[in-house]
Design a protein that fits this description.
It is built from five helices and no strands. With 166 residues, the chain is mainly alpha-helical. The protein has one domain. Helix 1 runs antiparallel to helix 2.
Length: 166
């Protein structure tokens, strides 16, 4: 196998490991963005309802009803959206710049080629191991990434109580 082919294989491994490691954070980010969008659209919807109640003019109510239905549909679409199914999770955004860094000034002698290949393999392995480490820390220390409300619910459940829903 030529050095260019080996470099391409290692590059693909690195991209795969970067995509896998970024997946969880991207899902969390998309979920938070969706929550913010739903809150903003709900706020706009309430303001539109207030405006509609104050106008009481029949000519404007049909206009408001159209906007209300659009906002409601958009809110429902965002709530039903599953970020884990996003196609953006399967791509690495900076792959072109990474490709340029790896393939530019590729050394010609065998020693330098082997060092660069080993270095890239080490980077890929580090990314995989770091992802596994984070999963283990989260698994064995679940309270680290819990929000305050979830901690209170679990503490109450531990002593046989239930937190009332507000």
């Amino acid at each position: 196998m030529s050095s260019n082919q080996q470099l391409l294989v290692v590059y693909k491994q690195l991209i795969r490991s970067l995509v896998k490691s970024n997946k969880r954070s991207k899902i969390a980010q998309i979920t938070e963005d969706n929550k913010k969008q739903v809150a903003l659209l709900t706020y706009r919807k309430f303001n539109l309802l207030r405006q509609q109640a104050s106008d009481q003019a029949s000519s404007n109510s049909s206009k408001h009803n159209g906007h209300l239905s659009e906002l409601t549909n958009e809110i429902e679409r965002l709530k039903a959206n599953d970020p884990a199914r996003s196609k953006a999770l399967h791509y690495y955004e900076n792959s072109s710049s990474l490709r340029e860094m790896i393939f530019q000034n590729f050394p010609g002698d065998a020693g330098s080629v082997n060092k660069r290949l080993q270095h890239l393999k080490d980077i890929s392995g580090f990314v995989k191991n770091q992802m596994e480490y984070e999963e283990l820390v989260e698994r064995y220390n679940p309270g680290l990434k819990m929000d305050q409300e979830e901690k209170v619910k679990r503490t109450a459940a531990r002593v046989g109580l239930q937190v009332p829903d507000l």
